[in-house]
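Hello again,

I reread your note about wanting to compare the complex against the isolated chains. To keep things tidy I'm splitting this into two emails, and this first one only covers the full assembly. Below are the input lines as submitted, including protein chains and any nucleic acid or small-molecule components. They are followed by the predicted structure of everything together. The single-chain runs will come separately.
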Amino acid sequence: MRERVVEATVQALQKAETSLPDWVLQRIRDAAARESRPLARQHLQFMLENVAIAGQERLPLCQDTGLPIFQVRMGRELKLDFDLQEAIADGVRKATRLVPLRPNAVHPQSRCNSQDNTGLRMPDIIMDYEAGGSLSITAFPKGAGSENMSLVAMLNPADDPFDFIVESVRERAANACPPLFLGIGLGGSFDLSARLAKHALLDMDGKKEDEEEQALLQRINRLGIGPMGLGGDTTALGLRIKKAYCHTASLPVAINFQCWANRKATEVIL
Amino acid sequence: MTEHHLSTPLSEEDVRMLEAGDVVFLSGVIYSARDKAHALIRRAGTPVSLQGSALYHCGPLIQEGRVLSAGPTTSSRMARYTDEMLEMGVRAIIGKGGLPPEPFRGRAVYLAYPGGCGAAAARKLEVLAVHLSELGMAESLWTFRAKDFGPLIVAIDSQGRNLYQEARE
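Full-complex prediction:
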């Protein structure tokens, strides 16, 4: 079983790094068809071309192969007789050699690189439990360009969180490789809002945004930031909001930016 | 939106004719440098001559001397070094996300390569040499031979036009 987890980790990373989910490609294609600015349209087409090249040559589509983040869905009836964190870390080390991945993980102070994308608390594994005896691993390698633009803000309950989100995207989008996917965490606590925002990105699967999400997405696209921040109708391709009750005196908002290369791949083990 | 095919070394005239929105395809030698290489150059000087050069904000993925993926990194992290790089003779900074435009005025341009398009970029770049390799793969100063590397969008021109600022307003 441990060996299957290691292999599933390698497979999920390999797939995530060299291709994009079909629904992501479809959203880029749809945006290219709608886009009125020639330069913006050319960017979207070039992005699709790049994904095709990566697929043909089985190479990472972006040189920033990301920080190794995984979502593990595990049935409550399942019992593992090995350290899951270590097994996935072994998979990351193997994928670093095989895919290959750029060594990205460094100590936060010494900036010393482990050379294998693992280290203290890395890979980051998000555990989600469900009924039954299932086990699946989703690789969600996160590039720094978009992750660096992400933020948590403790707003005044009198503030409009959507105004704050739109203004944050205006200021930050160009550095995050737009068109973006935006995971929004609304409410909860300081850290719960951030976890909700990450889960919002993980949950995105091409399902149409609800009415509130669509309205916010339209406001963001009216900003005109465009692909790579050079102007255009396409600033964001997807948006999901996840909410939690918060303290009556608080209004936490987290925005997790994801670049257009929304890389994600799942391997089902059980 | 004029298309230009240029080669390094770049002259002041080369970059002064470029206007925001133009598209450039670049050939010749280009250098990659990001956070650590910039800091080290400030401390210890540059290991290569940057006169007329194109400096690429990029931390490539390289295997056995072959470029596998080499898109741009976010330029704003290197904003504090723009002036001294341009003083050393850099005529074009290639990256993504933009930089404050003032230092470019009259002498240099900022060229945007589509972010995330590392696999496409790899087809146009060949490794000639590596300096500061003690900094590791992503942070080394790589010398590439570029062949029609692009599309590079003139995002900040030498007249002070800045497409990022225009898009934000």
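For quick reference: Chain B has a mean pLDDT of 98.

B.
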